[in-house]
Fold each of these.
Amino acid sequence: MLWRRLEFGLPSGWGILGKVRVHPLLVLLVLLAAGIGLWRDVVVLFILVTLHELGHATVAEWLGYEVDEVSLLPFGGVAQMSYGDIGFVPKHEVAIAIAGPLVNLLLIGLGAGLHFVSFWHHSFTVLTMRLNLSIVLFNLLPAMPLDGGRILRAAQSRTLGFESATREAYRLGIVLAGVLLVMGAVSLWAGFPHVGLLILASFLLYSAILGLRGMRVETVRFLDAKRRSPHRVDGVRAFAVAGDQTVRDVVKQFAPDTYHFVYVLDETGAIADEVEERELLDAVFQGNWLQRLDSLHNRHP
């Protein structure tokens, strides 16, 4: 995409800092703020957002993920993994998601300490605390692709299934973006324009819609990760479905860190067959995405 080509950052030889890429919309937001005389605010905000994202990336690498790049976005950032996704392991997703806001909370404590020993001026301390708190509160809103949305998905994916939990979190992102757009429009109408809020809302809306459109691909990647890592199981889950359901209908209910047994019911509601997760994953990657479960195999005469 065009915005990918417009991203820029430090050379790769800078270690994890060399993986940071700045989104052009973040640059636009910075220039708008600088244009109205908020140079100090802009510099501080940029540093805080960068530290926030490096917190995500550092924890991700500590957990064994290979971080290809960290894109700094207007509302935060996204860590791109070499393969797979942190959402495939809920406890990892929570740890990585919470790392960013935790960095900002630690910076609030650091700022308070430096102010206490008179190292920082009062006005600068207030500025850093306000910006850090804003980053924490915004990113913890329960909507994808914000940190709070990833935590919500991790919490719900074991009960709703990965696809449903992800879809719900992205839909909340659209709702949240709509609320922010209304707030931005009202502030504009009232004579107190908040351009930054409108940019944040627009980008959040775009990201959430893009995420929903890519759900089919995301589900396939999730299923492929389950197939390649069968040992990553914390529990077993069984559920029943009608025989006329397709492989697609069933696998979209699969949850991370769980092995699934599916009972296939006949027209009378009796159990006619039992299918294991491994068989369904094999069917998916053999191209039998739309095959009915009652025709998957016939164990019972």
Amino acid sequence: MKKRSTVIVGIDFSAPSRRALDIAVAVAARADARVELLHVWNPNHLAGSGAGHPEFESWILEQKQVLADQLQRWSADAAGSAPLSATVIEGVASRVLPERAHEVGAGLIVVGRRGSANLPHVLLGSVSERVVHLAPCPVLVVPEQTRVAAVPERLLVGVDFSQAAREALEAAGELAATLGAKRGIVVAHAQPRDPRVWLENSSEPGPPDRDEPALERWVARSPLAGVTVSCRIVPGSPETCLVAAADREACDWLVLGQQGRTALAAFLIGSTTHRILKLADRPVLVVPRKAGSPGEGSS
């Protein structure tokens, strides 16, 4: 995320979106950016036989104004050192947020995530995960119960030696520099003990036995000037050991590259990313692939 960009935060008036707004404002203040609060509502499912009737259309306008007033109150409550604007748009949230980000050239989208890993309704295809899938810029997914600082002092980047992981690492380096993350970056590669688990999670061909020197050589190929970097090989399945490593290393955010495909199966945003989004107890930043970026698999 570069300085003086736009941070879009999706607001549905829930507790998670309040936490997402707090983080968005704090990050924007540090990055000299502006914040756009965006509430998306879809009145089409309310229309039924009332569509086109003057009384119904009048009611729709009234409801939109109620939402706009509520959003303005949220904006006023969040006012700080970052400039804020608030907009209500009709449509489907998972599409409108990425579209708006594209229109304004946003550097970041921030969305809340309801529920916890223990609740069955946190499913693949939630609004936050669809936003991640469609967004043209990094998306920060904020869980409801997050307890970490609003502005990160340390980031954990989960990598698998892929090009997507490299792009996530470089985005994390830029973010750390912009936000002044004084404790830097931990680069962690999860190495399952069972090769079959590695096949289910890796997006790159090659042997699963990667060591810390190989990881350090891989990291050294990215421009991360001025950012403190530590490398870790963590044993276990990525979705559990990366979340645990973030806690153990006192990292405020996790950073992941968006793969979109694992070695054995295709998912909406990649199975590992999906599972980490469900399990994480702190914000997860998902970095999209750059258009036309090549594949990569060597150390």
